[in-house]
Each structure stands twice: as C-alpha cells, then as structure tokens.
Design brief:
Bound molecules: 1,4-dihydronicotinamide adenine dinucleotide, oxaloacetate ion
GO molecular function, one term: L-lactate dehydrogenase (NAD+) activity
Protein name: Malate dehydrogenase
Radius of gyration: 18 Å
Catalytic activity: (S)-malate + NAD(+) = oxaloacetate + NADH + H(+)
Number of domains: 2
Helix content: 40-55%
Largest sheet: 6 strands, parallel
Family: Belongs to the LDH/MDH superfamily. MDH type 3 family.
Order of helices and strands: EHEHHEEHEHEHEEEEEHHHEEEH
EC number: 1.1.1.37
Strand content: 15-25%
CATH topology of the largest domain: L-2-Hydroxyisocaproate Dehydrogenase, Chain A, domain 2
C-alpha cells in the first residue's frame, strides 16, 4: 500500500510519520519542491524506525514524481500556511497555482489514486482539484472535518473533565473560522448527550473554541498547526487503504445532497477503498440548517475568486 504526500513541510512530514508509526501503509513517498527537503524529512523519519519499530519505507523526492508511481492515495499538503491574523481564504491565489501544478504531475504517475486534499482554503482547493483533473467526485476528498471534529472532542473533554476517548462529536460545514458548524446536539459522552451535561454558556464556549481552533494555534505557533492535522489526514488515509468505511466529515462535491450543488463542503462521509463511498444526510434542525446555508454561501463566495 503506497501513499504519496506532496509537500514535506509541517503537515506533510507529520502525516508521513504517523502513517509509518501506525503502519498504515508499507511505502510513503514525500515530495517537495525545495531541493533536498523531502529527502531530509524522509531520512529523519526512517531513523525512527528501529526505536519506533515500524517497517514502512519512507522515501523523499525533490519534485521527481516518477518515484510516486502507482500510489493508491495521494495527499496534497503543498502550499503556504497562514500567519497570525490571516484567514485561510487569503491563501487562495498562491495555493490554487500550487495545487494546479501538483495535481497534474501526481495524476500522471498515479492515474487510479484517491486524492486527499489538505491545502487551504480547503473547500475551495478541493473544488479546484476536481476542476483541474475532471476526476469523479469520489476520488477527491478534502480533509478538514476530521481535524475540526478532533478539536471539538478535545474542547468537550476539557469542559467535561472526561477522557477524550469517551467523547463523540462531529463538525460539518466549511473549514473556516466562521464557517464550521460543531454539531453540539449530536455530541455525546459515552452515549449521553453533552447538551444534558453542560450549560448553554459552556456549550457555546466549546463551539467557539473549536471554530477558532486553527487560528488560536496559528497565533501561538506563528504558523498553522501540524500534529493534529497530520494525524487527522492519516486517519482518512487509513480508512481508504483498509476500506474501513468509517464515517468522517470531509469536504466533498455536493450533487443535490443537503439541497446543494456545485461546491465542496464538509458533510458526514463514508470513506472506503473508492474514496467517497456515500454521503450521509443527517437531520439538521432549523438553527443548524440556517448555519449550514450561511456556510454554503461563504464557501461559494470564496470559490468565486478561483481562477483555475
Ligand atoms: N485542511 C486542514 O485541516 C489543514 C490545512 N493546512 C494547510 O496545509 C498547507 C501546508 O501547511 P504546512 O505543512 O504547515 O506548511 P509548510 O510551509 O510547513 O509546508 C508546505 C510545503 O509545501 C512545499 N511546496 C510548496 N509548493 C510546492 C510545490 N509546487 N510542489 C511541492 N511542494 C511544494 C513547500 O516547500 C513546503 O515544504 C497549508 O496550505 C495549510 O494552510 C494546515 C493544517 C490543517
Ligand atoms: O488554521 C490553519 O490555517 C490551518 C488549518 O486549517 C487548521 O489548523 O485547522
């Protein structure tokens, strides 16, 4: 099982390390435009192997895509991250050009791959990848909701003072500071609705912290986060390679689901060997529907700036 990761920076290299450490794939190829960088990251990760006890082979390539040939999954993390004070949407110009160049090269060598998009602004870059390649929507999945949901569960665990492992929760909508929708009504602690365990103010605090989770870390770190993003991507890759059919909120092209068409946005998806196996249409109440429609409008507005 071979995975290519384009962009050997913070998120790409972390994802490679998680995939190797958890033995999710047998081979990982990191590709980066910066000369020597991907080779260096790959060598560093491989020098973990004897202590961390994994057999996955991690290779690096300075923009030579022949090494990526016949990957089952291609992860796209290449592009610039935001700096404190910026929105993800401000990255659109630079990153759309990067996505265009890498998609064409990657597809040439791995014509049957499933693509997992990470580059921001995520929902728009996922749509860009679809437009550039003309691939079926099943094969291009944007990773945003897996990360946002992990943050949601973390903030719930902090507020409830319970282990994160005992908490379930999902975030849908756009992967943006104001567009994501933590579904608090569906969140549970061991099956018990968190809405029965937290006050309305506490619930609002958790949702707010989740929505600005990426911005908070960007302010603290000076660049955007990588550990949780890398782990979230690895989980999506794992569900594809093993055909686990896990339900993971991902940004995919809607074709009538949730009453929407022509945009990629986070919705609950069944992720398996074909990529997007199914979109799950959960019931949204009036308030959630209103938030979803606002999120759809915001993502459409960002998409208008796309020139690829
Ligand atoms: N969807 C999500 O949930 C998340 C998305 N992101 C996004 O992921 C992207 C990467 O973030 P980081 O890894 O932190 O950035 P980074 O700057 O650490 O790494 C990006 C890498 O891409 C490489 N690159 C640029 N152009 C390239 C090209 N044409 N071909 C190959 N490699 C190229 C750079 O040389 C760099 O090594 C950003 O756009 C960031 O906003 C980050 C975290 C979460
Ligand atoms: O905040 C950012 O720009 C990076 C990202 O998407 C995240 O960490 O959620």
């Amino acid at each position: 099982m071979k995975v290519t990761i384009i962009g050997a920076g913070n998120v790409g290299a972390t994802c490679a390390e998680v995939i190797a450490n958890r033995r999710i794939a047998s081979e990982v190829v990191l590709v980066d435009i910066a000369e020597g960088y991907a080779e260096g990251k790959a060598m560093d990760i491989m020098q973990c192997a004897s202590n961390s006890k994994f057999d996955t082979i991690v290779k690096g390539s300075s923009n030579d895509y022949s090494l990526t040939a016949n990957s089952e999954v291609v992860v796209v993390t290449s592009g610039i991250p935001r700096k404190p004070g910026m929105t993800r949407e401000e990255l659109i110009g630079t990153n759309a050009a990067v996505v265009k160049s890498v998609m064409e090269s990657a597809l040439k060598y791995s014509p049957n791959a499933i693509f997992v998009m990470v580059t921001n602004p995520l929902d728009t870059m996922t749509l860009a990848a679809l437009k550039i390649t003309g691939l079926d929507r099943k094969r291009i999945i944007g990773m945003g909701g897996a990360l946002d949901s992990a943050r949601f569960k973390y903030f719930l665990s902090q507020k409830l003072n319970k282990p994160v492992y005992d908490i379930e929760g999902m975030v849908i909508g756009g992967h943006g500071d104001t567009t994501m929708i933590p579904l608090i009504r569906y969140a549970t602690y061991k099956g018990m609705p968190v809405t029965e365990l937290l006050s309305v103010e506490e619930q609002e605090e958790v949702c707010k912290s989740t929505m600005v989770g990426g911005a908070t870390l960007t302010k603290l770190l000076g660049t955007s986060a990588w550990y949780a993003p890398g782990a979230a991507v690895a989980n999506v890759v794992e569900s594809i390679l093993n055909d686990f059919k896990r339900m993971i909120p991902c940004s995919v092209l809607l074709d009538g689901e949730y009453g929407q068409k022509g945009l990629c946005i986070g919705v609950p998806c069944i992720i398996g060997k074909n990529g997007l196996e199914e979109i799950v249409e959960i019931n949204l109440n009036d308030k959630e529907t209103e938030k979803f429609l606002a999120s759809v409008e915001a993502v459409h507005n960002t998409n208008k700036e796309l020139t690829v």
